[in-house]
Amino acid sequence: MMQCIVDRPNVLGESPLWDYREERLYWIDIESKQIHALKLDSGEYAVWSVPSRPGSIALHDNGGLLVALSNELVHFLPQSGKIMPIEGTRIEGGVRFNDGKCDSKGRFWVGSMDLKEKNPIGILYCLDNKGRLIQKDQEIVISNGLGWSPDQKTMYFTDSPKRILYRYDFNLETGAISNRRIFAQVPDDAGYPDGLCVDQAGYVWSAHFMGGRVTRYAPDGTIDQVLQVPALCPTSCCMGGKEGNQLFVTTATRDLTPEQLIENPLNGKLFRLELNVKGDKDVPYKTLK
Ligand code: BGC
Ligand code: CA
Questions:
Q1: Does any ligand 1 atom lie closer than 6 A to the CB of residue 209?
Q2: 173 C-alpha to center of ligand 1: Å?
Q3: Is 285 in the pocket of ligand 1 (CB under 6 A)?
Q4: Is the pTM of this model over 0.85?
Q5: Is 192 in the pocket of ligand 1 (CB under 6 A)?
Q6: How far is the CA of 36 from the centre of ligand 2 (A)?
Q7: Tens digit of pLDDT for each residue in 77-112?
Q8: Any bridge partners for residue 14, and if so which?
Q9: Active site residues per annotation
């Protein structure tokens, strides 16, 4: 059974991230412009405010986090609260940064989304190890759900309103992606695919926004397992914990009616489930500058 581990609801909880260095779980609340952190053993809980809506976070090699704020990528140090903008990463024009994640070489992949959630004006970028923001794909409505296969030959990427999870051929050495094709398509009555993570067996765990579940896909795109989440709007998931076998699931309340919120007080909360498979540690963003 999925267990609620933080009783406080998020408006748009997102981007769960296990920090193996500090052994704590980070996540964000996009609409509240907040970053949250929880130590599982002590229950120590912290919240920071950031100046604009964050879309995603990753670990940073020089300590703290890389944060994709609404229109700029920044290096954030939780201890001091210091925010250092990363030069040359500003985006403009009816879009904001959304989901992002580091590949195993420590490059940060992040996509943008149409603020109206309608038009394909989003772009997929990669912040390389020299701090250059490089355009990798385009015509995306809402960038979401990124991950890599354990053999590093495949990159997964999600466009939520299209209800599609894509796969690309991935070149780990150069960071090139090619040959985009459909990995899985979510049926109309199952919500929208949002954040995802990949386990060590190469299976993909994808959260269904408005679909109340997380689906585990086999590497060939077939459905292996469906986990019910006790909240209607799961937004993302990650693997972590000391052993790497805990699945953490963030959820949202933003799009729910007052009736739906009263009916189920678990909406918007954070959940954990112990699995019998592990996930790799998240690699911090690495800058060679
Ligand atoms: C975005 C939301 C969007 C949701 C569902 C999230 O990642 O931040 O704005 O509504 O995905 O597609
Ligand atoms: Ca998301």
A1: yes
A2: 31
A3: no
A4: yes
A5: yes
A6: 16
A7: 999 999 999 999 999 999 999 999 999 999 999 999
A8: 28
A9: 194
